[in-house]
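Subgroup meeting minutes
Present: P.N., E.W., G.H.
Scribe: E.W.

1. P.N. recapped why we're keeping a running log of single-chain structure predictions: easier to compare across weeks, and new members can see raw inputs and outputs side by side.
2. G.H. added today's entry (116 aa).
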Amino acid sequence: VQLQASGGGLVQAGGSLSLSCSASGLTFGDYGLGWFRQAPGREREFVASIRRTGVPAYYADSVKGRFTIFRDNAKNTLYLQMNSLKSEDTAVYYCVKGLGSAWDYWGKGTLVTVSS
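Output recorded in log:
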């Protein structure tokens, strides 16, 4: 299984960024997927997750109303649309594959930097 996140970069506070995660080596539509992030000096934290059918989706309180997770099973791709970005959203973002109640595969992250 390979998960490759992309789309990170530098953006000003209040701006938007869209992340993608391309998956291979799995039957994409069979699994729940998610995004986690890790800011410098902090522990990795949950951002959002989505069931294999696309609904429902779950969000951390800190991103609810600003971020949207969605997936395209035909393209084996997971997305995270991030709006109204804040400096505290600065982190490396990882896409993850679910297995039951756990996360069993982690992709290489993509860095998002929000300047204030």
